[in-house]
Amino acid sequence: MSEEIGTMPRTKTIELDISKRGFTRILGGPPETVTMKSGANVLYQGESVGRHSTGDREEVIVVLSGRGKFMSIGGEDHEIAKHMVAYCPPNTEHDVVNTGSEPLWFVYIVAKAKV
Amino acid sequence: MSEEIGTMPRTKTIELDISKRGFTRILGGPPETVTMKSGANVLYQGESVGRHSTGDREEVIVVLSGRGKFMSIGGEDHEIAKHMVAYCPPNTEHDVVNTGSEPLWFVYIVAKAKV
Question: What is the rounded CA–CA span in Å between residue A21 and residue A10?
Fold first, then answer.
């Protein structure tokens, strides 16, 4: 992994590992980025992230393995699986749950949604 | 795939397919999102995206398969491979090239970087 130096965002790469259960930080926000934050999650069978909102940030989820459900509270439920991408608008309470037997592994990216 | 209705961003999912060589649009920007855009690329051996800058947008790349190089023009080169994530700040000319023998398959997400 190469990290930023000083306070200006710089290019960076990180290698993910499905054997790391739970949360892995990828991008922690400023000064590492301008507004973006990113992380990976490995959820085991039946596990969920928990209901939450990313506030004024919009979110993309990229599924690397497994299957589950992406649930917008008060909105639509979506089946998700390996090699699917999900989008969640700002201020949208949602949850992600592993509904399969394999680990559900996904990357999320959030960014401030100013119009 | 479920699409947005009207002009407010809505939750959405899309399934990716490595057999689709080249570019696949995932999120086209407003009104589908607030500022985010996203796409997938399948590059064959030796192929590159071409030098480009995403302007005032910062970018995350999630590699689904293959291996290659993420090159920041005038900056650092990074090896990338399956299950790696790369970050690129705004106004940073860069390129992605497949340096392996398998298809290099990645998702990119860009978002306006206003501070």
Answer: 28
Quote the CA–CA distance of B60 and B74 in Å, as a whole number. 19
Question: For A111, which of B30, B36, B88 is closest by C-beta distance?
Answer: B36
pLDDT beyond 80 at B104: yes
CB atoms within 10 A of CB A2: 13
Residue B41's closest CA among B110, B112, B103, B92?
B103
How do residues B19-30 score in pLDDT, each as one tens digit?
A: 999 999 999 999
Residue A101's Cα: distance from chain center in Å?
20
Query: For residue A76, which residues of chain B lie inside 8 Å, CB to CB?
Result: 2, 10-11
Would the pTM of this model clear 0.95, i.e. be above it? no
Interchain contact A88–B (C-beta under 8 A): yes
Contact residues on chain A for B30, CB-CB shorter than 8 A: 115
Cross-chain CB nearest to B72 (options A11, A60, A114): A11
Within a 10 A sphere around the Cβ of A50, how many other Cβ atoms? 8
ipTM, interface predicted TM-score of the complex = 0.93
DSSP state of A52: B
